[in-house]
Amino acid sequence: MANYTDEQVAKMIEKYNLTPSRETVEALAEEFDKSAKSIIGKLAREGVYQKAVYVSKTGETPITKIEIVREIAERLGLNETHLTGLEKSPKGVLKILCDNI
After folding, report:
1. Phi/psi zone of residue 52: left (φ > 0), alpha (ψ -120 to 50 degrees), beta?
2. What is the model's pTM?
């Protein structure tokens, strides 16, 4: 027994492709009387669901302190092991240092 008819799946895909957002998922869940997880699962199985990309409070893609230290080491032409312990510095300081090398 299928949870969704072919018509429901087609309508779901069409609406989601027009506006791929959590709000669309919520609207579809209400329309089809299903949970948001069920809708997301079906859209994912159909290959159309797009996972939301996390961004920090400043709107940037998050980066770890270790990644910043690696970038600093690369810019200085050093092996990152030469900068061991630097990752314990505040992230803001590491960004400033990286940006000014």
Report:
1. beta
2. 0.56
Dist CA 44 CA 51 (whole Å) = 9
Predicted pLDDT at 85: 94
* Interatomic CA distance for residues 83 and 23, integer angstroms: 45
Q: Is the pLDDT of residue 58 over 90?
A: no
Query: Mean pLDDT of all residues in the chain?
Result: 92
Q: Would you state the structure tokens that stand for residue 87, as one six-digit string?
A: 């990752």
Spatial distance between the Cα atoms of 43 and 35, rounded to a whole number of angstroms: 13
Q: Where are the domains of the chain?
A: 6-45, 65-99
First to last CA, the chain: 62
- What band does 1 get if pLDDT is binned at 50, 70 and 90? low
- The first and second tokens of residue 32, run together, are 């089809």
